[in-house]
TrEMBL record:
Domain Peptidase S26: start-end pairs: 125-320
Record-given protein name: Signal peptidase I
BP GO annotations: signal peptide processing
Organismal lineage: Bacteria, Pseudomonadati, Myxococcota, Polyangia, Nannocystales
Species the sequence originates in: Enhygromyxa salina
Active-site residue list: S155, K212
Highest taxon listed in the record's lineage: Bacteria
């Protein structure tokens, strides 16, 4: 039997104790009967042990009454002693020794098997008796209204367990005419509802019965992610998706499918769908990292169903068939659209709509919609993280704020205001932010802030459609701090893992040696130190101004002097090095800051009196470093050659200390994009249509507005300017194909462009090799309404769940 079908409940099960494995008997059956076994813990639930012991005791007494003369007296005595011991233990309920009771039951089962097997019920007789009992019970409840079924697997756990016997109300949704799929009387009863648990004939093999929960009704659109943890429904007639409500159950553990033992790597949720509230579970060890979603548009006359054991259930989301199929993408591909439309290709990416399933695919029909993805700066998001920078952190903070115009000093509480529904945990982390700098521009906003517990500076850039106000920006900053405190080693992608979009990131940790150089020669106060950046993603201007501000010079000097009581350095332009070179005199010698925008290199050279007696010496050494810029710019592996020991008069090189965390800069950019029908192409193809090509063309033509005949696009072709854009409808008789192509003005500003696409599609449609795929797995997710046998209503066995209503 398949994993997820149901089976007639009349099948009986051998008692739990009677199914126990009989141990080996190396000394003969009499020796085995008297062997002493060490105490052990019961492997079964208390209910299973008690039920099995009671049934074996009754069976033994029945056998002795009818067949005492055929059994050896010693065996009779031992059987009676074992029965007496079982009854004695049962009399102590509920405080009986379950392990001892289980042991005596197994011993009694072994004695009956060895010495009275002739009197025990055969499997056939046991089955027949259980069938008779089930039939009598079913007839006694409601003749011909309820049908018993047995659950064979755990696909509906925790609602239903393997081995549960249930009653199915066959008249709950009307009366099905025998030997047909026609249902009558459905109009005057409630009908199938979302959340109902139903039994139905499996669409891929109608000899099997399945049991699942109804998630989608005809006309609904269901959106489910690959992990099945996010389910949203757009009900028939509605314009928006609503997530299926659920809450995590913290105080209950998942149970194994074949026992009552709890298992790890499993999470329970309480889910509410319309009038039903029930429990579902997810196997965490089967979790998928695939972020994609699939969309199911439930057609008229069909249902979409899922199991409550969500990611361990063979249900609508998993049903497929294999066979030859037509693909509309074979008639018109992304390269075709790029070749034939007048868009700027570098600004566009094309997406098909292949993850939307609208029918049980028979392989004869397919539809693809290509959407042009256009960048939208108002939806951009960028996070920069400056970790243990070799330039003073305050200087980096001030330079970032100045470079991006973030001149307004704000606090988290001032930005968040009285935001209703704000997460208390987010507010808690936001309170740690302290000083922040903010700016609002036409299409974007900026926020520069610190990590509370480390010398890490962040810059957050957000488009106004993603961060509509200060509160949105502040909430994201608090989320970054929350993630950072959870793990300071997270890179920018993990700090902003909750943001979605097309991402572009440059983590600096793995590229540090080719982008950043720091070397020291001689003593810290009087020696030589170089810090250099090659093609820095960090921004040459930010680094340059921060390096000047570190010594109280440059445009940021006032802000730095406000925080540090240091005397400003004397700064002057080093004209011989270029327009962006400065020499600064201070107590420990000279510092030359040299930014070369052409080579994209910044060098900060500190030269003390052991090497540079005068400013002229410092400039000469800086000139030597600058002479090597072109070589380093071309070969990233030669960055360390900017300054060597021979250049500093043989001063010994010293290890770089005070930077144990390790400097690295990284960022994440989430590129804002717009996907809409204004820049789209839709192509629909059908091969061998029922009724023939002419009938299919005529039916589709009725949906066009003022169609006009077209020459040169096959024997019969039509054009119409419709709400969907320039539309062409034509046939390809050579391959018995009908094609409808619609191109919106964003991609096809005129009829000629759309006609070029139609010509390309017809040309490719004449060769089946272009569009016919062999042995393709196609989804078959929908259950025909006529396959539904009834609604599962109550569990009538086992006794521990007797007459429990199925939610």
């Amino acid at each position: 039997m398949p994993d997820d079908d149901t089976q007639d409940a009349a099948r009986g099960d051998r008692p739990a104790a009677a199914q126990a494995e009989v141990p080996a008997d190396p000394q003969g059956r009499n020796a085995r009967a008297n062997v002493k076994r060490a105490p052990r813990v019961s492997r079964r639930s208390a209910g299973h042990v008690r039920s099995g012991a009671r049934m074996l005791s009754k069976e033994a007494q029945r056998i002795l009454r009818k067949h005492r003369a055929r059994i050896d007296a010693k065996v009779i005595a031992e059987i009676e002693a074992t029965v007496a011991e079982i009854e004695s233990l049962r009399a102590q309920r509920p405080d009986e020794d379950l392990a001892a009771l289980e042991y005596q039951a197994e011993h009694l089962d072994e004695l009956l098997h060895q010495h009275a097997s002739f009197a025990r019920k055969s499997a056939l007789r046991d089955t027949i008796e259980n069938i008779v009992i089930a039939v009598v019970v079913a007839l006694g409840v409601r003749s011909c209204v309820y049908e018993p079924f047995k659950i064979p697997s755990g696909s509906m756990m925790p609602t239903l367990r393997a081995g549960d016997h249930i009653f199915v109300n066959k008249f709950a949704y009307g009366v099905q005419i025998p030997l047909t799929t026609r249902v009558v009387g459905e109009d005057w009863i409630s009908g199938i509802k979302r959340g109902d648990v139903i039994v139905f004939r499996f669409p891929l093999d109608e000899s099997d019965d399945f049991i699942k929960r109804v998630i989608g009704l005809p006309g609904d659109t269901i959106r489910v992610n690959a992990d099945r943890r996010n389910i949203s429904i757009k009900r028939a007639g509605s314009e928006r998706f609503e997530p299926v409500a659920r809450e995590k159950i913290e105080d209950t553990k998942c149970q194994a499918e074949n026992s009552t033992q709890t298992i790890e790597n499993c999470t329970l949720y309480r889910e509410t769908l319309d009038e039903h509230t029930y429990e579902v579970r997810y196997r965490d060890d089967l979790r998928s990292n695939d972020p994609s979603f699939r969309t199911f548009e439930v057609p008229e006359g069909y249902l979409l169903v899922m199991g409550d054991n969500r990611n361990a259930s063979h249900d609508s989301l998993a049903w497929t068939v294999s066979g030859d199929t037509v693909t509309a993408g074979g008639l018109l591909s992304r390269p075709d659209i790029r070749d034939l439309t007048a868009v700027e290709n570098e600004r566009l990416e094309l997406h098909d709509d292949g993850d939307t399933i609208r029918s049980n695919d028979d392989g004869h029909h397919d539809e693809v919609r290509y959407l042009a993805e256009r960048s939208d700066p108002t939806r951009d998001l960028t996070l920069e993280a400056w970790r243990a920078p070799p330039i003073d952190s305050r200087a980096i903070f001030e330079s970032l704020a100045a470079t991006y115009g973030a001149t307004e000093t704000v606090s988290f509480s001032g930005m968040i205001g009285k935001l209703e529904g704000a997460d208390d945990r987010i507010a808690e982390y936001g309170a740690k932010l302290g000083e922040m700098r903010y700016a609002k521009h036409d299409a974007t906003s900026e926020l520069v802030f610190w990590a509370p517990t480390a010398e890490v500076v962040f810059r957050l850039h957000c488009g106004i459609k993603r961060c509509a106000n200060k509160a949105d920006l502040a909430t994201r900053a608090a989320q970054v701090v929350k993630s950072f405190e959870a793990n300071p080693d997270y890179d920018a992608r993990e700090l902003l893992s909750f943001e979605y979009g097309r991402t572009q990131t440059y983590p600096g940790r793995g590229q540090r040696d080719t982008r950043y150089l720091e070397r020291r020669f001689g003593s810290e106060q009087g020696g030589v130190r170089i810090r250099a950046w090659r093609s820095p993603h960090e921004s040459l201007a930010v680094l340059r101004d921060a390096a000047l501000a570190e010594h109280g010079a440059g445009p940021l000097a006032p802000a730095m002097l406000e925080h540090y009581e240091v005397a400003p350095s004397e700064a002057g332009l080093a004209a011989d090095l270029g327009p962006q070179a400065w020499v600064l005199e201070h107590d420990h010698g000279w510092t030359v800051v040299h930014a070369d925008e052409d080579q994209q290199i910044l060098a900060v050279l500190d030269c003390g009196p052991k090497r540079c007696k005068t400013q002229t010496d410092a400039l000469a050494l800086a000139t030597t470093v600058a002479s090597r810029f072109p070589v380093v710019a071309k070969d990233r592996d030669r960055l360390s050659e900017l300054l060597g020991q021979a250049d500093v008069g043989g001063l010994p090189e010293q290890p770089v200390v005070g930077n144990e965390i390790g400097y690295y800069w990284d960022h994440l950019t989430v590129v804002g994009v717009v996907l809409d029908d204004s820049h789209s192409v839709n192509i629909e193809v059908e091969i061998e249509p029922e009724g023939g090509l002419e009938a299919a063309l005529e039916a589709r033509k009725q949906d066009l507005r003022d169609p006009e005949p077209v020459d040169g696009l096959g024997p019969v072709a039509w054009y119409a300017d419709t709400p969907n854009g320039h539309t062409f409808l034509f046939s390809v008789p050579e391959t018995k194909m009908v094609v409808e192509l619609a191109c919106r003005p964003g991609l096809c500003p005129d009829r000629a462009t759309a006609r070029a696409l139609a010509d390309r599609a017809r040309e490719k449609g004449q060769d089946p090799e272009n569009y016919l795929q062999k042995s393709v797995s196609r989804p078959r997710p929908f259950v025909p309404r006529g396959n539904v046998k009834g609604r599962a209503e109550v569990i009538w066995w086992p006794t521990t769940r007797f007459w429990k209503k199925i939610d």
